[in-house]
Every structure is written in C-alpha cells, then in structure tokens.
TrEMBL record:
GO biological process, one term: tRNA wobble uridine modification
Predominant subcellular localization, coarse grouping: cytoplasm
Keyword field: Cytoplasm, Nucleus, Repeat, tRNA processing, WD repeat
Name of this chain's protein: Elongator complex protein 2
Organism expressing this protein natively: Rhodotorula taiwanensis
Lineage, uppermost ranks: Eukaryota, Fungi, Dikarya, Basidiomycota, Pucciniomycotina
Length: 851
C-alpha cells in the first residue's frame, strides 16, 4: 500500500502572476499570491492551495476585526473559491461557486458575523456577483451590472449596500484612462472622540478617503463625509441618481474636460442619511500606469494612518503622506512618525519615500503595493514574477527603508531540472526564457546553524525559505532543456531553446565566490578540482583558470548572447566596493553580500558568460543530455519526418560533431539519457537511450569497448507504448531503464536483453520518470510524475516487482502536469532521498522523502 502520510516539500519556488490580485494580512505577515494555478502563501513559500482549474487571477483575505481565517480566490474560468484556515495551519475549501461567464477580475470578502461572510466577485463579463457564505453553504444574493471596478472605465462609482441590495448613488469623473485600483482608508467610527492620527491632516469620525489609481498616471483622492441638510434643503427633495447624471452631462458639455471639477457631489443612502463626496487631491509622481494602491493599516487604537502606498509600471513604489504646506517646502530628515505640523495649516500630499529599480531596464513594472507587518514592511510584485520587499529598520538613531531578500520563481512552465554532479545545487529551465540556479544558504542565526534554500540568476543555493540565488541565462526564446556538461564540469552547462542553437555557459568568478560565501561550497577551489595525485603543475593550471574567469556577464542591446563584461582587475573600476545601501542593489556590484542577491542583482550581475554555440539542428531544440564520464553531449530537435528525428553528438572539448547523426526515429525525440556506471563503477556511458513521440525507444551502444571512442550505433529498438513516450531514465546502476507514456503506463526494460520486466499502470498519463537507490542500497526507487500533478513512488529489489511506496498528491506536489523529475545524486540526508520536480504550474519543489 502506498503511504499517504504527508511529505511536505522543504523548498518551493514559484513566481507571482502579473496582476494586482494580491493581498497581505498585516497581523502576522502572511502573504497570499496568485501563481499560475497556485495560491501560494508565506514569506518564503511554504504552502500551496490546489483546486482551481484555470489560472488564478484574483484573491483577497476576508476583512475582519481580528486575524482573517478566510481567503477568497477567483480564476480565469469564472470560478470563485472560499478557503478557511484550520487550527493545524491547513487550508480547506469552504465554498465554490460560479456566477461569471468570463475571467474573475476582482474579489473581496467581509466577515458579517462569527460564521457568515459576504463575498463579492467581479468579472470580465461586466458583472459583480454577491454571495453570502456560511459554514453550511452559500447563497447567490444579487448581481450588479455595469461595474467600474470590473470594467476599469474612467469613472469611480460609489454604491450603497444593505448586505443584499446594491444601488448606484454616484459617479466620480476625473480620470482620463482606465481606473486600475481603488482603496478606502480605515474609517474612524462615528462618535469617536479622536480625529485622524496625522496632525497635518484632519479626518473626522464617519469620514473616509477613497484613493483611485489610473492608467493616466494620476492618483486621485476623494473625501466622503456626512452632510447635514439646512432647513431649506430639507424642504426640497434631493435629486435622484438619474438627475445627477443628467446634471453632470450638462456640465461636462460646457466645461473643459481636462479641468478638475472640485465641487462636492451630494447623495443619499436609504436609512443612513445624506453624504457628500468631493475631490480632495491629485497626486502626480509616477511616469506610467498606477497599478496598485493601499492605505497603511490602522494603528494600535484602530485609527487610520494617513500613509498611502502606490505601485506603478515605471518600476517604482511611492509612499505618500500629508504635511503642512509650510513643512512641504522645507527638507525634513526626521522619520515620518516624528513629523508634525499645526492642524490649522493648509496640507499637501507629498512623496515621503520612493522605492524601486532605478537602474534596471529589463523589469517592466510593479504591481500590488502591499503593506506588511504593522506597516513597517512594504511589498510589490514585479513584471518578472519576483517579490520586492523593503523594511523600515532603525539604524544609528534613524529609521531607514532597507531592501530585503524575497521569494521568486519561474513565470512559465518548468521544462527541466538538473542537479549538479555532487548534488549541491539545482539548475532549472523554463518557458519564461530563463535558467535559474537554486542552492542552500547556510549561515549562523542566534548561535545556531541554519540552512534555507534560495534561487540565484540561473543557480540554486540552499536555504530553508524559498528564494532565488542565481539566474545564469535570460533568453529571448522559451528554454526546453538543460544539462551540466559532466559531473566534473560542475560549473559549465548547455541549454537548448526554440531557436535551434545549443548554447554553452561557464560560471563567472562572482558566482563561485557567492556559492562559497552563502552555501559553503568551494566549487572553484584548485585542490577540490584536482585529484590528490595530480601534479603541482596541473593544480597551478586549474588555479590560473579560476583566476582568469570573468567577474560577470551582461546581455548587449538587441542581443541574445551573454557577454563577459569584466576581468577581476576591471571590476574595481566598474563597481568599486561600497557600503552604501543604494549601491548595494546596483546591477554591477561585484562585492559578495552576506545574503542572497536581490532581483536587481540577479538580472544584472549574476548572468553566466556564454562561451560557445553549437549549430546543426534545423528545428527547435527539445532535449540535450550530457555523458557521465565521456566529454560528449547528445541533442535532438522537433521533427515531423525521419530525416530530422536524429540524435547529434558533440564533443565538450572542442564543441565539434562526433561521428554521424544517429537515426532510428520517425518523429520528435522527447528525451535523451546516457547510462550511468554499473555497480562496479565501470562502463559509464555505454548506452544512450532515446524516446520519441513515435511511441518507440532506441538504445544506442558505444561502437567500441575503448572509452576513448565516442561514436555510437543502434543496439535495440522497440515500439513499446500505445501513445507518445514522454520521458525515459536509467537506473543508477544501469541494470534497467524506464519509459513513461501518455498511454498511462510506465514500463521497466532490462539491460542487455531489452525485455519488458514490469509495467506500472495509472489513472492519468505518465509524463516524467526518475530513478535512484534507497539510502540503504537495498532497493531501487522509482518516481513517476503524472499529468494531474501527482508524484508516485515505488520500491523494488530486483526491478521486476515494484511495490507502491508513497503518493505525493496535489496538496503537496503539483496541480498541473509534472514535466520533469530528478533525484539528487548525493543527498547527505540519512534515511531519505531528495527529489526535485518541475511542472507546468510554473513551480519547482524539492522533497526529502523517507525511502
């Protein structure tokens, strides 16, 4: 029987969708964000919530007086789900409903009482649906047509609600382009003896401020206050909404449309009285679309804090607050919390702090503008899916906003993951046109040793909380496959993409230094790179090679090739060492920090130089594989005819072709794999396995027993499956290989006689497979990834009788097709095997599995 005991991944890498559909919970710092088909939570991703059938497009925590225990999410299929947090830190679906004919654009929830929620969902079908949700189910309350929140038109609309009925009461004109975000300040309860917390700006009890952000680059503030009618007004019936619209239309016909109309708009709410709404201020500070607005959370007393955070497509966030007109003209270096001015003075809204990527030309915009814990942290998600975090820290008597390490991940389907030969770090390739490295961050915290996983521009470093430590390749085409060139060359890899070219990358010196500082892995050490018996001359050559490595690389304008930009001697002139906080996030900073790189550094100074290109394939690359001991790589491209369904071999010493292309398939070859050494540690790379869309596999054998001869010839072939074969892998001792097919089976084939030894059947198509040995060396371990996102593990002592060991279901594994699996070749964990997986749900996960 398979073990269904939860096996949580200790590392999850996932990017945030390009959307304002994110929300923070300031009480405990938990952040939820949409990531493809995921809802991902925590600072450092620690849980994903599966269930949606389409990409998640909107989410929000339900507003409540205390800690919110409910989360609302909507997806591209029009489905809305309500999640409830259980006492054991688990989340379960409380309700699911569909009332839209298009994608969900916005969701919001209010907690009416202890067990009753009011949910609002807006869709691209120009409707807003309201739902009352209880522990026992949900009811559809109403449908509100023509919503500006959903349609993003140029008018902000105010609507009255009595929990079951909605009525439009006012339209606020002013923006000249789509309104993308709205945010109300926390209202002061009516009857409260205090006004606002700002001495420079008054908000009376019962008044609220509404901020609206638009694609016209402006932020507008609107004040809504209760209106006391005079005796004459009481004798005259108030104009209804239609009459107000006619009056606005008449005024617009005679006034300049660009002129700001500051007159107050009056409206009434049944049972609540009369109100007035007027334009309060217009804030201009962004140079592109305003994509997110959020008022600061209330203070300890529940009073609003007059601080507004805005995000923009110009790669910046701005913190706005009011100051007296006199103070606005004078520079003030005091922290915001200590600024004050007489309330009798006129007030202006000013930019108190600006956050952003002022030196990056490749990250196109911010979304979100979220507040973190107690309003002392601010967050935004970037165009590339990364999170950007700044924290207000006290230093030398002053408070400074300092950048923090944040999580990130791939923004497209993950096509392949590959461990470095000694299992210290992981390389991943994705359709988001990037290759990323993940490795452990090892450091001492409070006298204790801590290890967490982070990801860096193309490299992986080990840290307990998920983040990125390296990104060696940022490309112009979707990446399909990657491989380290050999176990010995752990600092060199090749990649194939939709451009028909194989590219070769060598690590820069900065990455070697970063890996040693953050992970404790001395990959570039001369002694570690040479056997103890190597001559002193050889060791000197290796050391000279490491010293001559360029410091970093960049991508020239209109180019696709990473180019070395600095020798070690030039580094000090290009980017001199500095302790300034701003210099720390410059793209070219060759000083190794004591923390993983920020996104700006990943984009700028963590690229690997490209050292060569390999040509020859006529169509898009699909698979590249590296031999274990021999200096060769194999590659294959898309094919619709036998003439193109070839395997090409190249030498990693001079990058020239080896032998003639290997024939045998009629359609695209989907995976290539060289056989590892046998049990006695010899005969590595004797066979080369290829599997194809034509439902066949081929085994090519080395033409000579002499390991110096790197030519191959076909030794066996078989049409083995009824549907496409997606993946194939060898056992760690080359005693068998496994093939995974769309026909919902995985078949085990014995080496030498090439007969089918076992067949494993599943309810879904098998899309990926990987094999290793159990820690005690007694059993083979086989991992199978399925089209539905699950991962199944099996054990066998003889490769014929396979027993189910464990199932990683959608709660801990993936929610879409598992596209790649890889066991760590040298996991240093007693009693466990380490498995990395990648999926079309855009995420990478690493598990330590008892086996």
């Amino acid at each position: 029987m398979a073990d269904l005991t939860p096996c949580e991944p200790f590392y999850i890498s996932a990017a945030c969708s390009r959307s304002h559909a994110t929300a923070a919970r300031p009480q405990d710092g938990l952040v939820a964000f949409a990531s493809g088909h995921l809802n991902t939570t925590s600072a450092g991703v620690h849980r994903t919530l599966p269930g949606h059938k389409g990409d998640v497009t909107a989410l929000d925590f339900v507003q409540s007086s205390g800690k919110s225990r409910y989360l609302v999410s909507g997806d591209a299929t029009g489905t809305v789900r309500v999640w409830k947090e259980q006492d054991n830190d688990k989340w379960s679906t409380l309700a699911t409903f569909a009332g839209h004919k298009g994608s969900i654009s916005a969701v919001q929830g209010l907690q009416l009482d202890a067990d009753q929620l009011l949910i609002l969902s807006g869709g691209s079908d120009s409707t807003v649906c309201t739902w009352r949700v209880t522990e026992n189910g949900h009811d559809n309350l109403d449908e509100w047509k023509d919503s500006a929140r959903v349609r993003f038109d140029q008018i902000a609309r105010l609507t009255s609600v009595d929990q079951t009925q909605f009525r439009k009461v006012l339209s606020l004109e002013g923006h000249t382009d789509w309104v993308r975000s709205l945010s109300f300040i926390t209202p002061i309860p009516a009857g409260s003896p205090t006004a606002s917390t700002s001495a420079a700006y008054d908000i009376a009890p019962g008044e609220v401020l509404l901020a609206s952000g638009s694609q016209d680059h402006y932020i507008r503030l609107w004040r809504v206050s209760r209106r006391i009618r005079s005796d004459d007004e009481l004798a005259t019936p108030a104009a209804n909404g239609d009459e107000m619209d006619e009056l606005d239309a008449a005024l617009a016909a005679v006034e300049d449309a660009a002129e700001l109309r500051v007159k107050a708009h009056d409206f009434s709410v049944d049972g609540e009285g009369d109100f007035s709404c007027a334009s309060e201020a217009v804030l201009l500070g962004h140079d592109a679309w305003v994509t997110g607005l959020n008022w600061a959370p209330a203070d300890e007393t529940g009073s609003p804090r007059l601080e507004l955070l805005s995000a923009s497509a110009d790669r910046s966030m701005i913190l706005w607050s009011p100051v007296s007109a006199g103070a606005a003209a004078l520079p003030d270096s005091k922290p915001l919390s200590s600024r004050s001015a007489p309330s009798s003075h006129a007030s202006v809204w000013t930019s108190q702090h600006r956050f952003g990527e002022f030196t990056s030309s490749t990250n196109l915009g911010f979304f979100g503008a979220l507040w973190g814990q107690a309003g002392r942290t601010v967050l935004a998600n970037g165009w590339g899916g990364s999170w950007h975090v700044w924290k207000l820290e006290k230093e030398t008597g002053r408070e400074e906003w300092r950048p923090q390490v944040a999580t990130t991940g791939h923004l497209g389907a993950v096509r392949q993951v590959a461990w470095e030969g000694e299992g210290e770090y992981l390389l991943s390739a994705s359709h988001d046109m990037s290759a990323r490295l993940h490795a452990p961050w090892r450091r001492a915290v409070g006298g204790e040793s801590v290890e967490t996983w982070h990801v860096e521009n193309g490299q992986l470093m080990s840290l307990s909380v998920g983040a990125e430590l390296g990104r060696p390749q940022i490309h112009g085409y979707p990446l399909a496959s990657i491989a380290f060139t050999s176990a010995a060359k752990r600092l060199q890899f090749v990649s194939g993409a939709d451009e028909k070219i194989i590219r070769v990358f060598d690590t820069p010196r900065l990455w070697v230094q970063t890996l040693k500082t953050l992970s404790g892995v001395d990959a570039g050490d001369a002694v570690g790179s040479c056997a103890s018996s190597a001559s002193e001359e050889r060791k000197a050559d290796v050391l000279a090679e490491q010293e001559s490595r360029p410091m970093a690389a960049n991508i020239p304008p209109l180019g696709l090739s990473n180019r070395a930009v600095a020798s070690p001697d030039e580094a000090a002139q290009l980017a001199p060492a500095s302790t300034d906080v701003f210099d720390e996030i410059l793209p070219f900073n060759f000083t190794v920090s004591d923390h993983p790189p920020f996104e700006e550094q990943l984009l700028g100074s963590m690229l690997w130089p490209e050292v060569d290109k390999i040509y020859g394939h006529p169509f898009e690359l699909v698979s590249v594989a590296s031999a274990h001991a021999a200096p060769i790589i194999a590659s294959a491209c898309k094919a619709t005819a036998p003439d193109h369904a070839l395997v090409r071999l190249h030498s990693t010493e001079n990058w020239q072709p080896v032998g003639v292309p290997l024939e045998g398939h009629a359609l695209t070859i989907t995976k290539l794999a060289f056989s590892p050494p046998t049990k006695v540690g010899t005969d590595a790379d004797r066979w080369l396995l290829s599997v194809s869309r034509d439902r066949t596999w081929n085994v090519f054998e080395r033409a000579s027993s002499d390991a110096s001869d790197h030519t191959y010839r076909r030794a066996a072939t078989l049409k083995s499956h009824a549907r496409i074969i997606w993946d194939g892998c060898w056992a760690v001792d080359a005693s068998f290989f496994a093939t995974a097919s769309r026909d919902k089976t995985v078949k085990i084939w014995s080496s030498g006689n090439w007969q089918c030894a076992a067949t494993l059947r599943f309810e879904e198509a098998a899309t990926s497979v990987a094999a290793t040995m159990s820690p005690d060396g007694q059993n083979h371990v086989l991992a199978v990834g399925l089209e539905n996102g699950q991962i199944h593990l099996f054990l066998s002592a003889d490769s014929t009788n396979w027993l189910p060991s464990r199932i990683l279901d959608n709660d801990v594994a993936h929610v879409r097709t598992v596209s790649t699996l890889a066991f760590c070749p040298a996991a240093k964990i007693t009693g466990r095997v380490r498995l990395a997986s990648g999926s079309e749900d855009h995420s990478i996960r690493i598990f330590d599995i008892p086996a």
